Structure prediction request, 456 residues.
Amino acid sequence: MRTLILAAGLGKRMKSRKPKVLHEVLRKPMVLWVVDTVLKLENNLVGIVLGHGWQHVKAVLPENIHIFLQREQLGTAHAVMSTGDFIRGDEILVTYGDVPLVELETLKRLLDIHRTSRAQVTLVTVELEDPTGYGRILRDASGGVKKIVEETDADEETRKIREINTGIAVYDGDFLYEALKKIKPSNVQREYYLTDVVSFAGKISTLKLEDSAQTLGINDRVQLARVERVARERILTRLMLSGVTIEDPSTTYIGPDVVIERDTTIRPMTMIYGKTSIGEECEIGPLAFIQECEIADRVKVMRSECFGARIGSEAVVGPFARLREGSRIGEEARIGNFVEVKKSRVGKKAKAQHLSYIGDATVGEEVNVGAGTITCNYDGFEKHPTVIGEGAFIGSNTALVAPVTVGKGAMVAAGSVITEDVPENALAIARERQVNKPGWAEKFRRERSRSHGEEK
Ligand code: UD1
Ligand code: MG
Prediction:
């Protein structure tokens, strides 16, 4: 089988510089929702029609998709025609890049109906309370589909029809190829409508869906927000039913590609996006923002931001920590308040509990990074590495000027500026020695108050 996704339109109603299909639903471009779903169908060759901003759309697509360009957007039929022979000699599923929530099961049912009924076209339709904006399904006396009339071409009577075209359909490819040649842009929008091929079909079947939400189309930003809401609720429901506690679904956002194991609790005001996996018995949130992370079992992340990080089991992150791309936090490690970690490995049971920056560093197991420790990894031109050996102790307010290595078990005195390697088990002190001047303060105060008195 083959699938063709139509995604060439700019989406005028979005009022955006960006192609419509790149607008995101739960931080995933809407076109990828469709792409990922159809790629799950077996033996499916997938093509997509791009036009407006095609380079930008192409950039987010997986490689195994055939791209067709429709330079001028003359309508959905014209879009299909611009794929040439792609649609011939096979059954062809057509979906729209702006209808992101359609489910795999629905597509399978659609294909089943199409095959068993030996139809030339099988449409997915749905009845809507408010069908505004959609093409209406006109049926004849015996209930067969006669034609599809777009909103802009519909008279008052037709607009009252509540059964609409979702845009998702399966066609006999050869039939479609021939039918497309007969389509004329004789409608209000002067466009070639794919929906007009219905008039040339001998046998049309329909799959009338009960669940209208999965076929919501996005034409403006109000509909975008609506789809986001529906998608969000579905994902949260699925997770809760699979054993994840979500304390406050109304303030929790979880993307479609997030996997969370059972007995994990998601606390309020948490957002988890991208290809993120979270193990069992974790506590995430409140106020966590997590994207593209791999989190093992029994991890806690509180009031923190994690992007592109991997966190080992039983580690504790936050409150107010920031893990950036390439952070690898070891098992049972602790990353505390106002600690930023970037492109660094933090070993098992290591601790950086307060006010630190750890960048381009390798921190060994059971290292203690004191409050206010900074890796000075950047010289204005290049980034340099810092290595802290297993069991080392870095005193508070230390600056580690990279490239630099602190050996295993070494200690660094608080307030040091470390510019040279520290040998294993050594103590490094790199600061001015303290001078105490007995009675100096008292004398100072006495002199000051005398001179102030004279002035008065
Ligand atoms: C379309 C259907 C309508 C259906 C609705 C469902 C037609 C004529 N109408 O209307 O019956 O109820 O979807 O959401 O098909 N596109 C191209 N090239 C073009 C024009 C459009 O690739 O020249 C793409 C768009 O990028 C979009 C999809 O086709 O992804 C649908 O186009 P859109 O303009 O949104 O059609 P609707 O008015 O929503
Ligand atoms: Mg649309």
Remarks:
- The domain at 242-335 is CATH 2.160.10.10 (UDP N-Acetylglucosamine Acyltransferase; domain 1).
- The first helix runs from residue 30 to 38.
- DSSP finds eight helices and 39 strands in the chain.
- The pocket of uridine-diphosphate-N-acetylglucosamine (ligand 1) is lined by residues 6-9, 49, 70, 73-76, 78-79, 96-99, 134-135, 148, 150, 164-167, 193-195, 217, 219 (CB under 6 Å).
